[in-house]
Amino acid sequence: MGLLEHFRPNARAASIADIDATALHEQGFVGLLLDLDNTLLPWKDTNLPESSREWVESAKAAGMKPVLVSNTHYPKRLNFIAGELRIPAIPRSLKPRRHGFEKAAALVGCELEQAVVVGDQLLTDIWGGNRVGAYTVLVNPIHHREFIGTKISRMVERIILGLLGQPARVGTNVEAIKSENKDTK
User: Fold this and answer.
1) Is 181 inside a domain boundary?
2) Alpha-carbon Rg of the chain, whole angstroms?
3) What's the pTM?
4) What Cα–Cα distance (Å) separates residue 33 from each residue in 59, 87, 93, 119, 164?
């Protein structure tokens, strides 16, 4: 595996709403390790979009076990959102390090190979998920407002995606994870 392959997501989606949690569960996935900022809601925001709330509820109904895995330095905010969604959370997970992902998978009772990591950043969510052997899904960020460090990381991500032959963003008409084969790792 070449160095760049560590950053290749298993799948891409315009947003979480384009991810078919039922199809993932039917493929044997159980854990749903979700990033918070710019994946479920805008950075620093506390108003959870109804679409995110509905998607998490539908994922739970499909048999998936979601958990928030976030690098946020604001655990009160993370725990508030986790409470709103009625799911557990791993604060200060230090992605792309393994520990946060391992703790999240253990919390929901699954092996990392049965987990799906969903996030908007290659250098934290996707790289970290790939490091632990999870299935990774890269989504477009839902808002342009970001931490300055993230803005710098985005420049590197665009270069990496270009070298991988992938666009920086995917369109909303993308058919995401409807019939993906989990053996495509």
Assistant:
1) no
2) 15
3) 0.88
4) 12, 11, 11, 9, 24
